[in-house]
Specification:
Blueprint lengths: L2 E4 L15 H14 L3 E5 L5 H9 L9 E7 L12 H8 L4 E7 L2 H8 L3 H17 L3 E7 L1 H7 L1 H13 L4 E6 L6 H14 L5 E5 L6 H10 L4 E4 L13 H11 L13 H11 L17 E2 L2 H9 L17 E2 L7 H11 L8 H16 L7 H11 L8 E10 L8 E10 L2 E9 L2 H13 L10 E9 L10 E8 L4 E8 L2 H20 L1
Parallel strand pairs: 1-2, 1-8, 2-3, 3-4, 4-5, 5-6, 6-7, 7-8, 9-10
Antiparallel strand pairs: 11-12, 12-13, 14-15, 15-16
Helix pairs in contact: 1-2, 1-11, 5-7, 6-7, 8-9, 9-10, 12-13, 14-15, 16-17
Catalytic activity: pyruvate + acetyl-CoA + H2O = (3R)-citramalate + CoA + H(+)
Keywords: Amino-acid biosynthesis, Branched-chain amino acid biosynthesis, Isoleucine biosynthesis, Transferase
Protein name: Citramalate synthase
Length: 521
């Protein structure tokens, strides 16, 4: 049984652009507890008010499984007794049953960072662990920079962890703090540690500066480590920490180890996306196991194969980690892609139906013009339904005009759109303002149509992207507009392409509205 120790709430928040409020930290902690994480490092009490508040607030909640852990360091050299140091006192005042402290293992840090003797550093380590044990705490000792320290001075690095172990630490966590150690070095050093220190219980804490944090963590477990530290999605300083979203399925599905979070492995994708959403960051779609593209297939040969047997191009079944298989549509698509999407959209179409090749040909033609349907599946569903004669004509565009004007230098520009549409035999001519021409156009078209289709009031535009396509240089280039819309039930994407950004936006807007109306029919 491998212990999983999550440090997203402390190490993860050191990542660039990753910020959590007190309420966010509590919500993440509750989600990790639900998932089955064994230990949740809540932060460094005494270092900032938010972390102090977290340890007080989390006491108001009853966790089902996880143990909240406070983080700090060994006591400062200027204090003769550990209990005199406010760092250690703050750990005790956090009132957690478990604490984690880090100490210096690399002799260069002892001499150049702490500027104390090697022997004094051993006193700080042993004294801090013993004092915390005397206060009734279970102590995890993080041997900071252990692998670099071992490579520089193996005898001293071993002395530091032996001191912590003999002082009563429950687990010695070997840290690859700079993230530069290779898997073969990790395993060789761990074997040496086990040989030199009797009955030692080891953990691993890796950073990802060489893109090896997951590999190093899994290798460490293979050679005797029973406690693994990391963060959700690998969030962390510089290049990040070991990614628990890859480590946990690696342990359970590949290496056949047990861990409590592995019992709820189907929650993994939702946990990953939950943490990203709470931090207001877009999930990494290319992330293994949990990314949106982790089980996405684009090439026609690949799609044909996975339709027959998913194992041909999938290393695990996506459902095991709560993900789904996706078939993408692009100019690489063939009949298999189209048939797979037809099944997804609930369309009854046979492989021998001539309309299949008609759709493939139209798809390739549009993508050659600059259209992209990977992020605009609603537009592709409309394309398929039109080819099959299954799409209703909800309205006709008669004319539209957009004016973007600025009266005075200091005033922001004012956008106004005028739209004329016909629904059945009735013509509607309306105008609307907006924050920019596209917003004005969106407001005008929906204002014109809401009289006939009141369900459009529950629809909103949530994302708008413009990309200049290669070809003609400068302002004469084509642009591709991708729009994401949503209602109470789902999100959907649509696309438009033109030399005119307003025309491209109009195409995507019309598709988005048509898709919404089609769903209600």
């Amino acid at each position: 049984m491998i212990e999983i120790y999550d440090t997203t709430l402390r190490d993860g928040t050191q990542a660039e652009n990753f910020n959590l409020s007190l309420e966010d930290k509590v919500r993440v902690a509750l989600k990790l507890d639900e998932f089955g994480i064994d230990y949740i490092e809540g932060g460094w009490p005494g270092s900032n008010p938010k972390d102090e508040a977290f340890f007080k607030e989390i006491k108001n909640y009853t966790l089902k499984h996880a143990i909240i852990t406070a983080f700090g360091s060994t006591h400062q050299a200027k204090y003769s007794e550990p209990g005199e140091d406010p760092i250690l006192r703050a750990l005790v005042e956090a009132e957690t049953t478990h604490v984690t402290i880090f100490g210096k293992t690399w002799d260069i840090h002892v001499r150049d960072a702490l500027r104390i003797s090697l022997e004094r550093n051993l006193e700080l380590i042993g004294g801090s662990v013993r004092w915390l044990k005397e206060q009734g705490r279970t102590v995890f000792y993080d041997a900071e920079h252990f692998f670099d320290g071992f490579k520089a001075n193996p005898e001293y690095a071993l002395k530091t962890i032996k001191t912590a172990w003999e002082a009563g630490a429950s687990c010695i966590v070997l840290c690859d703090t700079n993230g530069g150690t290779l898997p073969e070095e990790i395993t060789q050093i761990i074997q040496r540690v086990i040989k030199e220190v009797d009955h030692i219980r080891l953990g691993i804490h890796c950073h990802n500066d060489s893109e090896l944090a997951v590999a190093n963590s899994l290798a460490a477990v293979r050679f005797g480590v029973v406690h693994v530290q990391g963060t959700i999605n690998g969030f962390g300083e510089r290049c990040g920490n070991a990614n628990l979203c890859s480590i946990i399925p690696g342990l359970v599905l590949k290496m056949k180890y047990e861990c409590n979070a592995g019992k709820k492995l189907s929650m993994l994708t939702s946990v990953s996306r939950f943490v990203s959403e709470i931090a207001n960051l877009s999930p990494n779609k290319y992330q293994p196991y949990v990314g949106e593209s982790a089980f996405a297939h684009k090439g026609g040969v690949h799609v044909s194969a996975v339709q027959r047997n998913p194992e041909t191009y999938e290393h695990i079944r996506p459902e095991l980690v709560g993900n789904v298989q996706r078939i993408l549509i692009s100019d690489l698509a063939g009949k298999s892609n189209v048939l797979a999407k037809a099944k997804q959209f609930g369309l009854d179409i046979e492989s021998r139906d001539p309309v299949v090749m008609e759709i493939v040909a139209k798809l390739k033609e549009l993508e050659a013009q600059g259209f992209q349907f990977e992020g605009a599946e609603a537009s592709f569903e409309l394309l398929m339904r039109k080819a099959m004669g299954q799409i209703k004509k909800f309205f006709d565009l008669l004319a539209f005009r957009v004016i973007d004007q600025k009266c005075r230098e200091e005033d922001p520009p004012q956008a106004e759109a005028t739209v004329m549409v016909r629904v059945g035999g009735r013509t509607e001519h309306t105008a609307a303002c907006g924050q920019g021409p596209v917003n004005a156009l969106d407001n005008a078209i929906r204002k014109a149509l809401e009289t006939f289709y009141p369900e459009l009031k529950e629809m909103s535009l949530v994302d708008y992207k413009v990309r200049v396509l290669p070809g003609r240089p400068g302002t004469g280039a084509k642009v591709r507009v991708l729009i994401e819309s949503r209602d109470k039930e789902e999100k959907w994407g649509t696309v438009g392409v033109s030399h005119d950004i307003i025309e491209a936006s109009w195409q995507a807007l019309v598709d988005s509205i048509t898709y919404k109306l089609m769903k209600k029919c």
